Amino acid sequence: MNPVYDFSSKVALVTGAKGGMGFATAEAFARSGAAVILGDVDEKAVQEAAAKLTAAGYQAIGMACDVSDEAQAAALVGRAVGEFGRLDFAYNNAGIQAPPADAADETAEDFDRVQAVNLRGIWACMKHELKQMRSQGSGAIVNCSSLGGLVGLPGRVAYHASKHGVIGLTKSAALDYAPRGVRINAICPGVIETPMVADMLKTQRAAMDEFLKQQPIGRLGTAEEMAQTVLWLCSPGASFVVGVALPVDGGFTAH
């Protein structure tokens, strides 16, 4: 049984929210009483995701947002505040993968594209979320790093660089804002049942099978498990948790 949170009168923002961990987290916030704004680069899909929540009786808005564009990140935060008057929680989840490549063969285009979304995108969202939370004197932000932010795996230079960077952003900003009533943390998911992982299982089956052998719990994680971790980090139950990079990986990093 999952904990029950009362986030009534609170406002949450989630990026990469059309599906997977993003939508699961948006839905969990909504079920807990929060008004939610869902951002995603896929406008049609994120509008459909928000419509699912409103059809279930929740307060939700979907908005197109390419987080690699700071102006769009700022507009997403502005829409949340304009519609709901405040911003209490943010889950900066949007991220992409690059095709696996030898470090000597990876293209600059792939490297730059991954950094633009995974690292600069979180920087841009967090920057504008913090402007609002600073004015309120309260808030909680969770950034999505990865198991790849804690360890290195072959063929993933661009991705791992970006996810290690997210942890650096998180820790530095957490120190700036803890005295001002805003808590910032990161989660580091392992291999989770999401559309991105499903694609990797199809295209890189042998590598993924080998990787899963190192996940002691013996199964994939679920998007809902990640959502519950985010909600806990945003809740009063985590009120003394600041600047952590929390592995949610079925024991992988316990090796």
From TrEMBL:
Q: Which UniProt keywords are given for this protein, alphabetically ordered?
A: Oxidoreductase
EC number(s) on file: 1.1.1.47
Q: Which Gene3D superfamilies match?
A: NAD(P)-binding Rossmann-like Domain
What InterPro entries is this protein classified in? NAD(P)-bd_dom_sf, SDR_fam
| Record family assignment | Belongs to the short-chain dehydrogenases/reductases (SDR) family.
What GO MF annotations does this protein's record show? glucose 1-dehydrogenase [NAD(P)+] activity
Q: Which domain of life is it from?
A: Bacteria
Give the protein's recorded name.
Glucose 1-dehydrogenase
SUPFAM superfamilies noted in UniProt: NAD(P)-binding Rossmann-fold domains (SSF51735)
Species of the source? Lichenibacterium ramalinae
